Each structure stands twice: as structure tokens, then as C-alpha cells.
Amino acid sequence: MYALFALFIASSIIIFPQSVLEASKRGIEMWASVVFPSLLPFFIVAELFIAFGVVHFIGVLFEPVMRPLFNVPGVGGFVWAMGMASGYPSGAKFTVRLRQENQLSKIEAERLVSFTNASNPLFIIGAVSIGFFHNQQLGILLAITHYFSNFLVGICMRFYKRDIRSTRKKEPFSIKKAFQKLYETRMNDNRPLGKILGDAIIHSINTLLLIGGFITLFSVLTRIFQEVNILAVFAKFIAFILQFFQLPTELAPSFLSGLFEITLGAQEIALAENDSILIQAILLSFILAFNGLSVQAQVASLLAETDIRFFPYFCARLLHGLFASILVILLYKPVYVTTSSQTAFPVWSQHIADQANNLYVIFQNTGIIITIISLMLFLVLVINKKTYS
């Protein structure tokens, strides 16, 4: 089956070279202009936090919060915050890293990755809401429902395999103990500062290269499936499901594209002939929560480096999509309609929307330059590492 699928892809590339080239360029441009420059600083900082013992420090301080809420150690607070700020697949990346450091058990890691792999505000507000819909209020609605529903998923996943007791000693809240943990971790890592920084950059860019490959691959796959009308067949099944929930069936192809790749699906939903913002928001909230098969493939690849299973994460994505869709319906009137009827946004929402939009524009204009410079630095570091090893 794998061989036949690979043969099908290879044949499609030969038959539809122009379409495949356009899809490949689109995937690489999106990765180089936005994904790479927006994720690289978070990845490097996270590696430095782990090396310097900051994660252990946070773990002791957040233990009284994360354990009762989500049944995970306090270090999960670091993953949760970084995952929301930087976007997917950061939550999976940092969970895997902590599992490799033996700071999480297998079950704790499966709980943690299920609710820390979220979209970032830059993408929800800057790219989707303002970039595709030219609608700031929609971005605030989607962001609120996305993060709150993700919180609910974390609450639900705390009961996942709760009968299996953790053998890890629970850390009591103590600032003195937190500083002691930070100091011990730093002393146990005898690498010099330059080595730590170089390793952080190499590990981060390696992960981002993997992410870029998946983004490009799924961009090409989605285009091939469109060319050979495979998506049209699946769209009929999606249309039946939408009809069951009394949603317009003409949005089925766009929604299906979003299940494969979020950006493409969001753009097609924005261009679809449908005047109901509520319907579009419901579908958008689901595909943002589902993560798309492209992101899920990235997560599966990262999790494969450890013993963390992918299936609990996949089930959590379906649960997240359900919660997010319901919350959009409940919050549509108080969050979206109310602010739309006002002459001006609330100060906090206006500030968030403006910052996300400005940052997204900056990445679009300078992101590729940042990516090229970073890859050149990466190449120099790798060559030096091989020379002196």
C-alpha cells in the first residue's frame, strides 16, 4: 500500500507538473515567510530554558496549579504557555523534549500534548481574520473560543488513565526549592555557553526543516487530490455531515481542504459564497482545533521520537473541535455581534488585533530574509560541528 501510494504521487507529479510546482512554491513561501521566523525564536528560547534549568524552576512553582487542573507536573505550565504563544506544533515539540529529559511520564506526556498544541494569535487574528476575512471582530471570537475550548480539553484529559498513579514525586511549592532545582540543573549540564547556544539553534532549525517539509508535502498532496477529483468524492461525504447539522453543503469542499491544511481551508472558506459569518466561524473554529492533517503529521513525526502515543492526541483534536464549535455558537452574540454594533472596539481587543496584524505584516515583508540568514548560520554551525567533532 505504501509503495502504491508513493507510485501514485510520483505519477501525479509527472502528469500535473505545473500544479505541483505552484503548490510546492505556496507551501515553501508560507513556511519561509511566516512559520519559520515566527517559531524559531520560541524554539531557541525553549532549548535555552531547558538547558539553564528554567523549566525545572517553573515546574516547582506551577505544580500546585497544573496538577489539580490537568493532572500533569508543573513543567506542563511552561509547555502550555509556549504552545499558545508560538502555535503548533510547538506544544508537541516541547512535550517531546521534556519526555526525553525524563521530566514527564508517558501518560503525563500524552495528557499534556493533547491540549498544548494550539494555534497562535498571530495566525488566528493576523492571517485568518484580518488577512482572509478583513474582520478583526471575527479574530477575537475565534481566539477566545479556541483557547477556552483547549482549556476544557485539558480538563477532560486529566481523567485519561487516571487509575495509573504517577511514580514521580510531587514537588511542593517552594521558591527556595525552585531556585535549587534551577541551580542543580545548570551544574549538571557541563556544556559551555557557546555550545549550549549552538546546539539550541541546530536542534530548533532541524525541527523547523522537518515542519517545512510536511507543510510543502501536504500542500502538494492537497493539490494532487484536487486534480484527480479525490477531494470531490470526500466532499460529498462531508456535505452529508454538514446537511445533518443543517449547515450549507456548498462549504463542504472548503471545509475538507481545511481538514487537510488549515491555511488553504481558511482561505477557501473566506472566498466561498456564504453570507453567514456564524456558519463560517463554526467551520473555522473546528479546523483550527482539529489542526489539519498536515499539523497532525508533524506532531506524529515528533512523537515518534519517544514512546508517546499519537491516538490520544487525535481524539483530543476531535474533542477540541466539538467544544470550539459549540462555544462559537454560544459566544457569537455577546462577543461578535455586540462588538460589531459598537462604534469602536474595546481597548483590549483593538490592541491585540492591531499587534497581531502588524506582526503578521512584518513577517510577510521580512520573513524570507530572516529565514535565509538563519539557514546560512545553521549551515556554518553544522560545518563547524563536523569539523571539530
TrEMBL record:
- Residue stretches making up the Nucleoside transporter/FeoB GTPase Gate domain: 33-131, 209-303
Which UniProt keywords are given for this protein, alphabetically ordered? Membrane, Transmembrane, Transmembrane helix
Pfam families given in the database record = Gate (PF07670)
**Membrane-traversing stretches:** 39-62, 69-92, 112-133, 140-160, 200-221, 228-247, 277-303, 310-332, 359-383
Top-level taxon of the source organism: Bacteria
* Protein's name in the database: Sporulation integral membrane protein YlbJ
UniProt source species: Gracilibacillus oryzae
Q: Which gene encodes it?
A: ylbJ
